[in-house]
Amino acid sequence: MSDDHPRDRWGAGYIGSHAVLEVLQAGHRVVVLDNLCNGSLLALHRVEALTGQAVTFVQGDVRDRALLDALFAKHAISSVVHFAGLKAVGESIDKPLAYYESNVYGTLVLCQAMAAAGVYRLVFSSSATVYGVEAPVPYVETLPRGTTSNPYVSSKAMVETMLEDLQAADPRWSMVLLRYFNPIGAHPSGVIGEDPQGIPNNLMPYISQVAVGRQAELEAVAGGGKRHSPVKTCQSRGHSRHPHSRRERAGGHENRQPGASRRHHDLSLRHAD
Ligand SMILES: NC(=O)c1ccc[n+]([C@@H]2O[C@H](COP(=O)([O-])OP(=O)(O)OC[C@H]3O[C@@H](n4cnc5c(N)ncnc54)[C@H](O)[C@@H]3O)[C@@H](O)[C@H]2O)c1
Fold first, then answer.
1. Is 105 a catalytic residue?
2. Cα 64 to ligand 1 centre (Å)
3. Half-sphere exposure (CA, 13 Å, Cβ side) for 67?
């Protein structure tokens, strides 16, 4: 395996599976690490069918330092896109330690393993919720992080701070913090999309499950607006472009908000394509 064919690490979850597809189609190779607590091997098999290319998959946990060391030793990994984590706001309020362990400690272990392996390019899946409840809409990338409202958001803000500190201490690090808000949609083929385990925590998969009969009904609360970035594949393309567009550049970190920042009311999602 040579650096002419560097491998990147992506995911088997909703956004990760779309990103794997995009990066394979862009001619790169991929190693996926996922503990499958909310991901699906079926999604990766479908990505393989869509692209005609094999995906190297390892079932394991991002907090497992020995496993990460073995992965970096075995594969010529040039950059990492980090999707692995827990993402349910309500659950994070009930189980804050689980969220800090998975999201904050998991990223810390990943960074330690990357540095030990000499891999310094990282794209982190953050969230636009780090702008805080007081931030004006539409969000722009120059907004500061605001007041966090739950442990999930706090975990993302903590990781952002940790990564900024790390990059400031060692300019070899090149980091992108991708902040998105409730991405929705699916690949145009329709064979991969968002299919969370259990009861969906986000609105669009809930609507989809009502449509196919997996949930009985959706209760719509008048005036309850949410912001959604409309096109999933665009976001995944954002992921697939970022690490490579920065390949020639030395160090630094940047904040990115893939997709549009238009505001969509909950009811408007019923009419989404
Ligand atoms: N989907 C959204 O609305 C949204 C919005 C903003 C940010 N994000 C962030 O983007 C990332 C991906 O989101 P998604 O919607 O694809 O979620 P997802 O749950 O579909 O994907 C996350 C994947 O990470 C895996 N995972 C979780 N903990 C792990 C661990 N400790 N070790 C290894 N694998 C682990 C899960 O099995 C799953 O496949 C998450 O970090 C999430 O916080 C998502």
1. no
2. 17
3. 15
